[in-house]
Amino acid sequence: MEKANDIWALVLAAGESRRMGEPKLLLPYRGRTVIEAVLESAAASRAGGTLVVLGGEADRIEEKVAGRAVARTRNPNFAEGMLSSVQWGIRGLPGDVRAAVVLLGDQPWIAASTIDRVIGAFLEGKKGLVYPAFRGKGGHPLLVDLGRYRKEISRLDPSEGLRGLLRRHPGDVLRLEVETPEILEDLDGPEDRRKLGRL
Question: Are 20 and 189 in contact, with CB atoms under 8 Å apart?
Fold first, then answer.
């Protein structure tokens, strides 16, 4: 499938893994680490490039990123939360990038085909905010049209995050129904380790 060179994957890998008690992105998943699985899905998708936003445990995670055809940036404000990494990452994207697909670094089971469905829906439609949903419940990844929302994202309040953007612009949202409940799952605390063997 042809790459969409002006759409990049923005992988958020800056969290501190406080609840997990150890770097969750470095946990093993199907023969590699969680973050490596996410990067492999991004690389296999239609996304024209990938930018990884690092923060907590940046050196250790960067060891797993090094050698891959991905751009990297370190968010000095990562302790402020996920939105700060989104904002930092968007600033680090090439200027000609039209849209960003925001991927969570702790969702190693998100397939390239799911990313492609979100990208395809954006390219075929006229909506600037696209995300998958399973039985009506929204998940990730979220695609954002940067031509429309780059400046607004830079001004978002951390308490509302990107979901605030969806609430403000309901008429520009496409919720894409998929048959993959994995879009709703991520890794949070130690109890979520079982997902690494189940999903």
Answer: yes
As given in the structure block, the two tokens for residue 71 are 């751009």
Q: Tell me the pLDDT band of 120, cut-offs 50, 70 and 90.
A: very high
For range 154-183, the mean pLDDT = 92
Residue with tokens 């990107």: 162
Calculate the CA 43 to chain-centre distance: 13
By three-state DSSP, how is residue 182 classified? helix
Nearest to 9 by CA among 80, 110, 78, 84: 110
Residue-range domains of the chain with CATH: 4-187 (3.90.550.10)
Q: Is the pTM here over 0.85, yes or no?
A: yes
Residue by residue, DSSP assigns 93-131 as S-TT--EEEEEETT-TT--HHHHHHHHHHHHHS--SEEE
For residues 89 and 47, what is the distance between their CA atoms, to the nearest angstrom?
15
Cα(183)–Cα(103) distance, integer angstroms: 10
Which position has the token pair 């380790």?
Answer: 193
Beta bridge partners of 133: 138, 177
- Listed in sequence order, the DSSP H helices in the chain are 34-44, 58-65, 82-92, 112-124, 146-154, 161-168, 195-198
The rounded distance, in Å, linking the Cα atoms of 168 and 159 is 14
Tens digits of per-residue pLDDT, 51-106? 999 998 889 999 988 889 999 999 999 999 999 999 999 999 999 999 999 999 99
